[in-house]
Design a protein that fits this description.
By secondary structure, the protein is α/β, with parallel strands linked by helices. The chain has 2 domains: about 120 residues, Response regulator (Rossmann fold), CATH 3.40.50.2300; about 100 residues, Winged helix-like DNA-binding domain superfamily/Winged helix DNA-binding domain (Arc Repressor Mutant, subunit A). Helices cover about 40% and strands about 20% of the residues. It is built from 8 helices and 12 strands.
């Protein structure tokens, strides 16, 4: 179910050559593609209907990719979002991940690699829309007040639901599976991006920040994710 029946990819970039080249490659890979030359035009279309996956440039006229990502996240916490950034945009790239983007590519990039990243995003999306049959290793995971249901992609802290992206869910599950054990950034990347060897370690820090923010919203007294300086992170279940 990689393409989710010819799933729709929205490509938002003010460079016509990128829209043409990437759009052609994605269509050849079996996806439907809609392109937009600026963020405001894209948002106007997204208000009518959301795509299955969104690819956003950061620097665009009328509305930049960061604002567009912020608005998309207000509509959907699970929509896969991939950023296209320039080499000198590290701050914006990290900010984009903190806003809820799932992945990024630095320009200039390989079109083949971009299509591979999109396939990974669709595979994750398929898991949320079409959960696999339960197996002995699947089902619910409990760690203190936290409950994670991998089959339904549902997370709760006590009685409060947590709205997590697929990547955030995987990072939190990796931590909560072994409370008290330190997980390195590399180990968390392997859990969160099992099909992708290109993601930078800084990506984990951005997802951790969003997870902490969402956990604090659910319970201001909670602080279950601990930073172990020089090593990584660990989950404290309160036991």
């Amino acid at each position: 179910m990689e393409t989710i029946d010819g799933g729709l990819v929205a490509l938002v970039d003010d460079e016509g050559s990128i829209r043409e080249t990437v759009g052609l490659a994605l269509r050849r890979a079996g996806y439907r593609v809609e392109t937009h030359a600026d963020g405001l035009a894209a948002w106007t279309a997204f208000e009518r209907a959301l795509p299955d996956v969104a690819i956003l440039d950061i620097l665009m006229p009328r509305m930049d990719g960061l604002e567009l990502c912020r608005r998309l996240r207000s509509r959907s916490e699970t929509l896969p979002i991939l950023f296209l950034t320039s080499k000198d945009e590290e701050f914006d790239r990290v900010l984009g991940l903190e806003l809820g983007a799932d992945d990024y590519l630095v320009k200039p990039f390989s079109v083949r690699e971009l299509v591979a990243r999109v396939r990974v995003l669709f595979r994750r999306l398929a898991l949320t829309r079409h959960p696999r049959p339960a197996t002995p290793s699947d089902g619910s995971l409990r760690a203190g007040p936290l409950t994670l249901d991998s089959d339904r992609h549902e997370a709760r802290w006590g009685d409060a639901p947590l709205s997590l992206t697929v990547t955030e869910f995987r990072v939190l599950r990796a931590l909560a599976r072994h409370p008290g054990h330190v997980k390195t950034r590399d180990q968390l990347l392997t859990e969160a991006y099992p099909d992708d060897a290109y993601v930078a370690e800084r990506t984990v820090d951005s997802h951790i920040k969003r997870l902490r923010r969402k956990l604090a919203d659910a319970d201001p007294e909670s602080d279950p994710i601990e930073t172990v300086y020089g090593l990584g992170y660990r989950f404290r279940d309160g036991s």
